[in-house]
Amino acid sequence: xxxxxxxxxxxxxxxxxxxxxxxxxxxxxxxxxxxxxxxxxxxxxxxxxxxxxxxxxxxxxxxxxxxxxxxxxxxxxxxxxxxxxxxxxxxxxxxxxxxxxxxxxxxxxxxxxxxxxxxxxxxxxxxxxxxxxxxxxxxxxxxxxxxxxxxxxxxxxxxxxxxxxxxxxxxxxxxxxxxxxxxxxxxxxxxxxxxxxxxxxxxxxxxxxxxxxxxxxxxxxxxxxxxxxxxxxxxxxxxxxxxxxxxxxxxxxxxxxxxxxxxxxxxxxxxxxxxxxxxxxxxxxxxxxxxxxxxxxxxxxxxxxxxxxxxxxxxxxxxxxxxxxxxxxxxxxxxxxxxxxxxxxxxxxxxxxxxxxxxxxxxxxxxxxxxxxxxxxxxxxxxxxxxxxxxxxxxxxxxxxxxxxxxxxxxxxxxxxxxxxx
Length: 422
Prior knowledge:
By secondary structure, the protein is α/β, with parallel strands linked by helices. The protein is 31% helix and 25% strand. Helix 5 (161-170) runs parallel beside helix 6 (189-201). The longest helix is centred in the middle third of the chain and has 14 residues, at 233-246.
């Protein structure tokens, strides 16, 4: 799909944040592991969430889903499916499910699309090898087999919190107690806490013994419950940036006391000079005189692309550190943003995991921009084009379906001039 962004009036209006994709993944799996029926409300369907729902069904849960809800009757223990589990392009789906598949005691195969099956799985590969378990990848098919045994699991804390969360889902179901010993530094700690919070809602507990050690008692059982999914701060970052750059945008449905690490977007925008104030039911973001700042992405990597775009319109210099994991996402997000922003006259450079962005005199590109099959790249380019008043064509814009299929309808609601060829 190709989209065309045209210069228009300043964006303004009220927009409801879509439900949190990160919490939805976790709630679906907790419900799938519970002995009984759970109902999840406020659920937004996307390719990633639908992949997790389908995977839960493949592993034995009974799943019924409507426009904004899902009813899930759990399957404990899980069942090994005969056919490979298709994780689409969802890293959360794949990494959360690998340890759970190892509980079945039978081989379970996973497949995926895009760059998913090329993304690193060495943490699990080493863990499975240490227990003498099967972990084999041939092309785009990964096959694992258990049974996983309780014990002390030592793993790096700076590769991806998804590995830690995957073990947290599975270890409570084992007969014995386990420990997760994380090698510092531990990045994306907020995502670990989101997993623990979701598990707590479903009756499963773990505890920090110290800053790097999690105790996970075995012999636990997930209990069914109904749960409403909170608003997504990661997705809210796009209309929020649009508001402080160019207009007057209120985003509703955001929990002020959330565990989501991406809620730091509020602090980042304010440190850049952005006007962001709490209003009844949401946060109002108004056009502001912005300046560069230093931003640490260790706990909020998904904000990287929109912050790179934002930096081009901030006075001075914006330095983004601990961004190395962006190279291992749906695209190499650092390289992708460098390539596309330079087409607009953007001054951006990187050195490993550090990205430096400088205020730039932007211009319409000579040709189309490309979305790199990455939803956050497409959304970031859209926001920048709209804020800067640039006529821009973005090819590969269908990538937004991965996390926010209604993104273009949402920005139209704010007055952004968007046309699609689909």
